[in-house]
Amino acid sequence: xxxxxxxxxxxxxxxxxxxxxxxxxxxxxxxxxxxxxxxxxxxxxxxxxxxxxxxxxxxxxxxxxxxxxxxxxxxxxxxxxxxxxxxxxxxxxxxxxxxxxxxxxxxxxxxxxxxxxxxxxxxxxxxxxxxxxxxxx
Length: 137
What we know:
Elements: H1 2-12, E1 21-24, E2 30-34, H2 53-70, H3 78-98, E3 120-122, E4 130-133
Antiparallel strand pairs: 1-2, 3-4
Helix pairs in contact: 2-3
C-alpha cells in the first residue's frame, strides 16, 4: 500500500489548467484538451475538456439525467424512476455547494479511476514490489 500511496502523491504534484485527457502536442509537450478518459466518460458522448469543476460536474449530472430519460431499462419500476429522477435533480441543484469557488478553475489534478491491482505489474508473488502501473487510458 505504501507504493500505491506514493504513486498517488506523485500524481498530486502535477497541476493542470483544465479537466480532460492528456496528449502530446505538436511541440512534444503534454497538453490537456480532450474529454476525460474515465470509465464513466467513455460511455457518454464526446466532449472537449472542461475549464471548471462546475462545468464538469454539471455535464456528468446532465448526462445521467439524459440517460434516465432516454433509456427505459435504466429503472426497475415507477418508484425507482421517481427516486432516481429526484436524486439527479437534487444533485444538479447542489453542485454549487460542493465546489469551492477558489478551486473551481483549477489547478486540476491527475486522477486514474482504474488504478487497481489488475493494472499493476509486480516483480514476484512473494515481494509484490510494483514495477509498473498500466492501462492509463
